[in-house]
Amino acid sequence: MHVRTLGRVSTQLSPGTETIEDPRTQPGSGDGDEERFSHYVPKEKLTEAMINGTPVIALCGKVWVPSRDPQKYPVCPRCKDIWAKMKSGDDGGDGSKS
């Protein structure tokens, strides 16, 4: 009998034998929901992505196909910081242009 659960393999060899640990990482579902953040994306790009199922790129650099209600999640801290700097004109530099 072979049972696999959350990175552990329990193998019943015979009565009274031990459990063998399998330390390999199990792949996730890949849906990206574990982050639980809303990201800043141009509104027209978001609308197009929701209709056509195309990927978008957030200010923080995350690329994904939006499919969840962004109102359910807190705003991504990186997106929020980048947006605040863009609005204030602060690029984080010393004020000189390059």
From TrEMBL:
Quote the biased-composition stretches of kind Polar residues, using this chain's numbering.
8-17
Domain of life, per UniProt, equals Bacteria
Residue ranges for the region (Disordered) are 1-36
User: What is the protein's name according to its record?
Assistant: DUF3039 family protein
Q: Which organism is it from?
A: Haloactinopolyspora alba
